[in-house]
Specification:
16% strand; NADH Oxidase; 4-stranded antiparallel sheet
Length: 183
Amino acid sequence: MIEQIKKRRSHYPKTMTGEIIPDDVIWKALEAAQTAPTHKTTQPWQFIVFDKKNISKLTDKQKEIFQLKNMDNKPVPPSFGIVENNVSHIVVIVCNITGLVPEVEEICATAAAVQNFALALSMEGFGGYWSTGNGIFDPKMHELLELTNSQKLLGYFYCGVHDGSELAPRKRNPISENVDWIK
């Protein structure tokens, strides 16, 4: 199991093929997300899934937000088209702030759920990438997703079939650099 965790990688939309991940694989990964640790069992995560035929509903809103904030009149970046063409599903990551525990605990629990989702997807041979750009803080995106004031949009998880291209070596510090062990 630890080796599978170490092998998990982020796969960016530009390295995805456009092939469709079967919906049952996405469901299995969502079920894995549901097992994340959560204080008082609040299970604060909410996932909104856009499949291939509905991705443009999300990316069209992202483009609209980009254009509204684009004071230099730059063209829409090609990354939007890459997402539309290459990504199988987009899972929108939302955290419900319940008020039962500190907000940071709800956000951490949601992040743990996303990690479970990513690991499950990887173990099935698929990949993804958690992005926090493209209008997640804009009220127009919150309107599209029908979010309430007690919900925080934490990003988008782009899911896809990796094209098999060589990945750059993972750069990680030794764990000893991130641990102070008090004895």
